[in-house]
Amino acid sequence: MAKLEPRGRKVKILATVGPASREPEMLRKLLMAGVDAFRVNMSHGEHADHARAIEAIRALEKEFARPIAILADLQGPKLRVGSFKDGSAVIRHGSRFTLDRDVTPGDESRVQLPHPELFEVLHKGQRLLINDGKLRLRVVEAGHDRIVCTAEVGGVISDRKGVNVPDALIPIPALTDKDRRDLAFAIQHGADWIGLSFVQRPEDVAEARRLMGGYGALCAKIEKPAAVKQLDAILELSDGVMVARGDLGVELNPEEVPPLQKRIVETARSVGKPVIVATQMLESMIESPAPTRAEVSDVANAVYDGADAVMLSAETAAGQWPVEAVTIMSRIAQEVERDPGYKGRIRFHQTIPERTTADALAHACMTIADTVSISAIVVFTGSGATARRVARERPSTPMMVLTPSTSTARRVALLWGAHAIMTRDIGSFEEMIGKGKRMALRNGFAEAGSKLIALAGVPFGTPGATNLLHVVTVNGDELKRHKAGDTD
């Protein structure tokens, strides 16, 4: 069986699968370079392509005995203009431009807007952003059949370009018919996380949860200003969130995005739910073998903020240097985490434990690891809830998550500091201590004299019963037995 050493970093890397990376050998290279989880982008490609990629990832998981998370990212509704008689037109800066219901191909003065719901919510003074914000229109007159705008930023507009509406809550569901088909496919093929796009309100998350029927974990993508306003409620219904900076950067002023990123990361951490920072992290590496200094700083800042994971999009999906992109991202994260000031930075935002035994013990793990030389925190969990509590505290030592649940092991692959290991459940205190030591030795987290923290619940195997913390020391005899080839 092939072996992957511990990553040597706590932040995780999520890489998007695409034409440049969906072949089994490339996926293998990406995993060895440092990928912890793969994103399947349902906006592109056919189900057959995604099925082959998922099958290849699961084969790698078996080959390396390393749980790998798969996130199926749903497209969500896309607002677009209609078509033009010449394929495109030029909107002059400062000119008037009308969006209407007329299906006649457009020109430099008008085009169809095939979304009747927008005519009901747009008002004078609101903005329309075309083609990722390259064209910016301001509504000067809004009616039932037409929306007259002035072009604050003009330019070339062409067929079916996307429309962003940052100033209005759009009365359309987050899940289209395509998304429902894609969601059914993702569940059928065993995706561990579902990425929900176009979230505007908590009800969008609740609807997705209903359709998931209790399967998998739900990651709400925060990419709309409306979602930011209801972040707490959306987080309460989600298993994690993604800072989707692409659309956020279109719909907000650029200078608003960095502090908002920090706020989303802090809010997610405060409730113990994973948070992913995504979009354009190493964008230049789509074509270049090396990133810009600004991109390196961008990735480093996300790590300093305490994000659970950082994501590569087109860099690995369609770029010319996918392995190099993963390698440099891993190196950036390792260098940041070696910084003596890193611990203080990620704990600058204090997480207050809830008044529960489980939270108190998770907080104690961090305090003990700061006080005593601890090699690893060994968490025994069935659901992953205890691991999330410990990760929320951002302890200075690695966390081994021992679980009998395949789905839990895969889901925590996106959790900060977690090294998930599939193993049989424990039935006694002695078994807990023995297994914790063996797994730490076997996976490179301990040696003779190492101290470990073991965290579990009694009675063993009872969900939500975390009530036991024990500090143990690995002795020389245990190391000898391990080298002689012990078995679990």
Report on this structure.
The model has no long low-confidence stretch (mean pLDDT 94). The protein has 488 residues and is α/β, with parallel strands linked by helices. The chain is elongated and about 80 Å long. The longest helix has 18 residues, at 47-64. The strands form four sheets. It has an eight-stranded parallel barrel with strand order 1-2-3-12-13-14-15-16, surrounded by eight helices. A six-stranded mixed beta sheet has the order 6-5-9-8-7-11, covered by helices on one side. It is built from 18 helices and 21 strands. The two termini are 16 Å apart. It has helices at residues 24-33, 47-64, 116-121, 177-188, 202-212, 225-229, 231-237, 245-251, 257-270, 293-305, 314-317, 322-338, 342-346, 357-371, 385-392, 406-411, 429-442, 476-483, and strands at residues 12-17, 37-41, 69-73, 88-91, 96-100, 110-112, 127-130, 135-142, 146-153, 155-158, 163-164, 193-196, 217-222, 240-244, 275-278, 309-312, 376-380, 399-403, 418-422, 451-457, 466-473. It has three domains: 12-76 and 173-342, TIM Barrel (Alpha-Beta Barrel); 88-164, M1 Pyruvate Kinase, Domain 3 (Beta Barrel); 357-483, Pyruvate kinase, C-terminal domain (Pyruvate Kinase, Chain: A, domain 1, 3-Layer(aba) Sandwich), CATH 3.40.1380.20.
Properties at a glance:
single chain, 488 residues, alpha/beta, M1 Pyruvate Kinase, Domain 3, Pyruvate Kinase, Chain: A, domain 1, 3 domains, six-stranded mixed sheet, 18 helices, 37% helix, elongated
